[in-house]
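worker-03 picked up job from queue 'complexes'. Input manifest follows; two sequence lines, order preserved.
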Amino acid sequence: MGNRLTPRDRVVTALNREQPDRIPIDCGTIASSVSNIAYGRLAKILGYPRELDRSDMNDPINPDHDLTPCNEILELFRIDTRSVSPDQPIDSQALSRTQLDEYTYRDEWGVIWDRPRNEIGPYMYRHGPFQVDDVEIADVEKYNWPDAQESKRVAGLKDKAQKLHDETDYAVVVSVGHSSVAPCQRLRGFAEFMEDLILRPKLAEALLEKVTDVIVESTTAILKEAGPYVDVVSFSDDLGFQDRAYFREEMFQKQIKPFLARCVEAIHDYTDAKAVMHSDGAIRALIPDLIDIGVDAINPVQTTAWNMDPSQLKAEFGKDLAFWGAIDTQHALPFGSVEDVKKDVRKKIEILGSGGGYVLTSCHTIRSEVPAENIKAMFEAAHEFGRYT
Amino acid sequence: MIHYETDIDMDLEKLTKYVVEGKSDDAEAFTIEALSKGMNPKDILNKGLIPGMDIVGDKFQSREYFMPEMLVSAKAMKKAMTHIKPLLSSSDTKSNFRVICGTVSGDLHDIGISLVGMMLEGAGFEVIYLGPDNTADDFISAMEEKKAQVLCMSALLTTTIKNMEITIQKAKELEVRHRMRIYVGGAPVTKEFASHIGADGYKPDAASAAKMIKKEVLLSAKD
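worker-03 finished. Artifact:
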């Protein structure tokens, strides 16, 4: 393919598992944003010192968080994607939050999050409203769930999406938040929800049902506005550890998959865009089921997790699934040299990019300690080694 | 001296099976009945419950069991233990080995380390769980205060694993390093990193970590 494609066509071609002109590159849309601390150093070496004064760079109650680089830097690295978001989406990552003190907030699902006291670090969910022994199905039923129908949820979304679609040729990405599992873990407690799947399956089911109802409504509301203008819809969940998936395949298929299927169906019902699912960890055993429910690509492709060898993933699933992410954030980016990063980029391009089917970016958000030189090297190497012709 | 019956018609393999299958109520009922018939709590622990958690650990390691099954089995053991623990003297158990578990400063991801703690408890150790976000001083003063021999530190973030080295250095500075075995784990930790910072051991998953610690600590006790 000798012709130069637009960024949008490049991404869509790759997600159709066909070969574009070069490997498309993402930054800042699907788990690929940059910690404000690392971004400060990056902006400096690239010659954009005014970025250090951005209001979201210096937020005392949010000292370590992810952000998307400015448009000039995205253009410098010839990033093919741009994200669009509603002003206040339903999202269990808690974009809408009530700060309780300097270290703690409550999200709109009622989950309490806190950040480390001893040093700067990101927030983590700590306690959920159903994390009590005597919780009953009735408590779940009558809970005050977030209202997905509120018009403020999608305020401004359609205009922003349409503008990006009509006036630029970037691939437009919208996130619809989480699918069913992660919110349940936060609401009920990680271990408690796991135990419920065996000991109180009806309670787990009721919680999954209610959470999925909210997600489907919210996804529908978002895509009714943005659906015609976006190329990619992303959603996140949490299905794997470093060394294994969270669940046995049979348990996943019986108790979890039907709810995830509803989330993905809500995406495909309202848009022709591709559905990209984010889940960290060793999820290989679950991938056939994800393909089955209509997932077009997976992110972040954590090749450092158990049994997630990229060659095997590509050989086994590359016919039906595209890959988005994969550049090693556990070793090469934070602790490796510029050469290590380049080597990893080249390897992932050769393996996952073979014949198309790969959008390159960091395997998860770039954390605060990652050297600016390594971030720069990742994007430069993506161009250096990413041409198909 | 408490007298225990030696000839009780109750099959401890049944209790082992309840733990493996995660049957909390059955494990508890069996334990209550066995105690009421005069069975030695030490036997209930060492011949019923611990073998159960050993099997669970093996099944987890071979990926026959996943997190839900592991948690439910640990719950069954815990429920039985609530009846046994008050009756045990420290010489009956491995509880003369105390283990401190926690995540390092700046890191709130404590699922993995809880699992390691749970498995060590399942092996009969006394586990003192510090929870997330512990500085070097937190770890070392807890080790001293609880007279613990083993420290297990965990981190998920690449930003925080440096704090493992800081803790080990601090222990050296305070000249207490030789009194403790220090194990490290978590997603970004590697064997090379563990040996570079001077930890005593590392394993990539909770089950093999617990197995290694159990083996090494018991071996060192024989020295």
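worker-03 released lock.
Residues 7-92+135-385 of chain A form a domain with the TIM Barrel fold (CATH 3.20.20.210).
Residues 175 and 234 of chain A are 5 Å apart (CA to CA).
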